[in-house]
Design goal:
mainly alpha; flat
């Protein structure tokens, strides 16, 4: 694996402890050198924990739309329009 996008494809399995040991080692090595992916993993872990522990609360429409726009902008900044690592 040589770019962030390849690691992102395996993050759910990694966070759920379902990834192969070799993939886990590669991800952990990458995380040591990539602060953006470390933030992504930490955020994913917290999100999973909150989802498992909490109850579902709908977001107000305006907040949801703003969050989606911000996430889309950040994704494009990181990976470009075509989804490739920028």
């Amino acid at each position: 694996m040589d770019n962030c996008r390849e690691y992102l494809e395996n993050l759910c399995a990694y966070v759920d402890n379902e990834a192969d040991d070799s993939i886990c080692k590669e991800i952990e090595k990458h995380l040591a050198d990539c602060p953006d992916c470390r933030v992504m993993v930490d955020t994913l872990r917290k999100t999973v924990k909150l989802c498992r522990e909490g109850r579902e609360e709908p977001l107000p429409g305006e907040l949801k739309a703003r969050m989606e726009a911000i996430l889309e902008q950040k994704w494009k900044e990181k990976f470009g329009e075509d989804g490739e690592d920028a």
